[in-house]
Write a structure and sequence with these properties.
Length: about 425
């Protein structure tokens, strides 16, 4: 075997034709293991078992499978929660308390779903940061990246409408603030908001449609994730060196199952600690107050995983431009394959670019902190500076630094 190819252990197992008069293959035949190689099932074998993976992938490549597990947990726990939840403004809050107190294991389902959402975002953000660091978005994986950016946008939408369902104070007022953003659309803005609400305020029609969509969108995410992996497997994975990956490959199973398992165990231990010892630490206390359209909370704060986006929105004094800037974050992220001009892919070999990268990561964290603060001095000004750096990283530093480094390399040569 050359280092350029590997043979799957089952590859040589072929099913012999039946002998004359013979109806079935003998049961004891070892060849029954070849079921996975039947035409209808080879897709599973090709993509989740034999898939040729670069042998030098680190633990950083485990976040993709972990994100898939998170999506599975959210769908499974959500289906069971929906069996006991009632999407009506008079009953929603009480039905969640019913789940917490009366339903067998209901508290676990709810805390698993609520904390699982936060953990899902942490995993996906790490997955994205890995991609940015190692240049996994660069050609030929542009489609993988663009699909990922769309997935992130739909994830945020799904989480946002899910947060409305318990119908607490933050649910109602968070929904009111965010849906009202559509009013910035020129000419038809106010009509769009009324259409989104299904009335003249966030009310029963809104809650009902949010429940319906919150049940639907995770399946859209599952479909997009399959496309995301299909697009990846068309060319194969990147690797920590950022070099051509075809040189040394091993099958996904068992090598990366064993490696990913380590991350899955750590993930479940940490998630369990949150569920059992501090289940409300990631949430906001005000959401334990039933929604009251007559009383606005002092501070309307979204969930921690959208705080940086919220900070970008609020750092721009004009409402329309604020919404444009917030959407601009996704556009910049999705455009990364075309904004990056350097020929060296991995930041492990670009110390200056790595310094700017880590500054951008710190900026994102600080934006998260600003998003939780009131819009007043000095938070407003700090938020504006951070927003400016964040966009400069994508739109100015990344293209120009790559171009500059390549010019230096050309001179060396
Ligand atoms: C539901 C969310 C997501 C799921 C289930 C998911 C799943 C996966 C899986 C299983 C892999 C292969 C293993 C790995 O390289 O980690 C992968 C690779 C990748 N994903 Fe995602 N992903 C998600 C979101 C995203 C997002 C938001 C982005 C970026 C905007 C993204 C960008 C990428 C890239 C660039 C790769 C290729 C990495 C490489 O080959 O180095 N993914 N994803």
């Amino acid at each position: 075997m050359t280092p350029y190819e590997y043979t799957h252990p089952l590859a040589s197992t072929s099913v012999e034709p039946l002998a004359a008069g013979q109806k079935y293959l003998p049961h004891a035949s070892g060849k029954r293991a070849a079921l996975i190689r039947q035409p209808m099932l080879t897709v599973i074998d090709d993509h989740v078992s034999s898939y040729p993976s670069p042998s030098n992938l680190t633990y950083m490549w485990g976040f993709g499978s972990l994100a898939g597990i998170c999506l599975g947990i959210q769908i499974a726990s959500g289906i069971f929660l929906a069996m006991h939840y009632t999407p009506h403004v008079d009953l929603a809050f009480a039905s969640v308390e019913h789940i917490m107190r009366d339903v067998q294991g209901g508290w676990f389902l709810r805390y698993l779903h609520a904390n699982g959402a936060g953990f899902f975002f942490i995993v996906v953000y790490l997955h994205v940061l890995r991609g940015l660091y190692y240049g996994s978005y660069s050609q030929p994986r542009e489609l993988v990246w663009v699909l990922g950016s769309v997935i992130l946008l739909i994830m945020i939408l799904t989480a946002f409408i899910g947060y409305v369902l318990p119908w607490g104070q933050m649910s109602l007022w968070g929904a009111t603030v965010i849906t009202s953003l559509a009013s910035v659309i020129p000419v038809v803005g106010n009509d769009v908001v009324t259409w989104l609400w299904g009335g003249f305020s966030v009310d029963n029609a809104t809650l009902n449609r949010f429940f319906s969509l919150h049940y639907l969108l995770p399946f859209v995410l599952a479909g997009l994730s399959i496309l995301h992996i299909a697009a990846l497997h068309q060319y194969g994975s990147n690797n920590p060196l950022g070099t051509h990956s075809g040189t040394d490959k091993v099958p996904l199973y068992p090598h990366f199952y064993v490696k990913d398992l380590v991350a899955w165990v750590v993930f479940f231990i940490v998630l369990s600690m949150f569920i059992h010892y501090m289940p409300n630490v990631l949430g906001h206390a005000d959401n334990y107050i039933p929604a009251n359209p007559l009383s606005t909370p002092a501070h309307i704060v979204p969930e921690f995983y959208v705080l940086p986006f919220y900070a970008v929105l609020r750092s721009i004094p004009d409402k329309l431009l604020g919404v444009v800037a917030m959407m601009g974050v996704f556009v910049c992220l999705g455009a990364m394959p075309w904004l990056q001009t350097a020929r060296i892919r991995s930041l492990a070999f670009r110390p200056l670019a790595a310094a700017f990268y880590w500054t951008m990561v710190a900026t994102a964290f600080l934006l998260g902190w600003i998003g939780a603060m009131p819009v007043e001095t000095p938070y407003l000004e700090i938020g504006q500076l951070l927003t400016a750096y964040f966009f400069a990283y994508f739109l100015v530093i990344t293209p120009f630094l790559g171009w500059f480094e390549d010019a230096l390399l050309r001179e060396e040569a």
